[in-house]
Design brief:
Elements (H helix, E strand, L loop, with lengths): L6 E6 L4 E6 L4 H8 L16 E6 L9 H9 L6 E3 L9 E5 L13
Parallel strand pairs: 1-5
Antiparallel strand pairs: 1-2, 3-4, 3-5
Bound molecules: FE2/S2 (inorganic) cluster.
The site of FE2/S2 (inorganic) cluster has 12 residues, from loops.
Length: 110
């Protein structure tokens, strides 16, 4: 079993932000400490303002709780989308913020 890291890297390849945080830090904390390009409103897995696309490292994020699963299902989220307000960082990740107006959010066909 690989050793648990003490520090982990959060990267936004599209906009260029990179920061290092402690293992298990929340993405909300990191956002405000390092001015990462994510916006939040409810912070309760309801509004989807904080939607992120996980470019790399999906396995390095804390597991989904039921409420996040339900919200992502309701918006027909892609498998690599997560709600930033629900995340702790457990390993290196590459993310991209998906704003409410982003074309990636356009209705998906069934
Ligand atoms: S801030 Fe509302 S779902 Fe994350």
């Amino acid at each position: 079993m690989p050793e648990q890291p003490t520090r982990v890297k959060i990267e936004f390849p599209v906009t260029g932000e990179v920061c290092e945080v402690d293992y298990d830090d929340t993405l909300v904390d990191a956002t405000f400490r390092f001015e990462l390009p994510i916006r939040y409103r409810c912070e309760r897995a309801v509004c989807t303002t904080c939607l992120v696309e996980v470019i790399e490292g999906l396995e390095n994020l804390s597991p989904m709780e039921e409420r996040e699963k339900q919200t992502l299902a309701a918006i027909k989220a892609k498998p690599n989308w997560r709600l930033g307000c629900q995340l702790s960082i457990l390993g290196d990740v590459k993310l991209d913020y998906v704003p409410i107006t982003d074309s990636r959010r356009q209705p998906l066909t069934d």
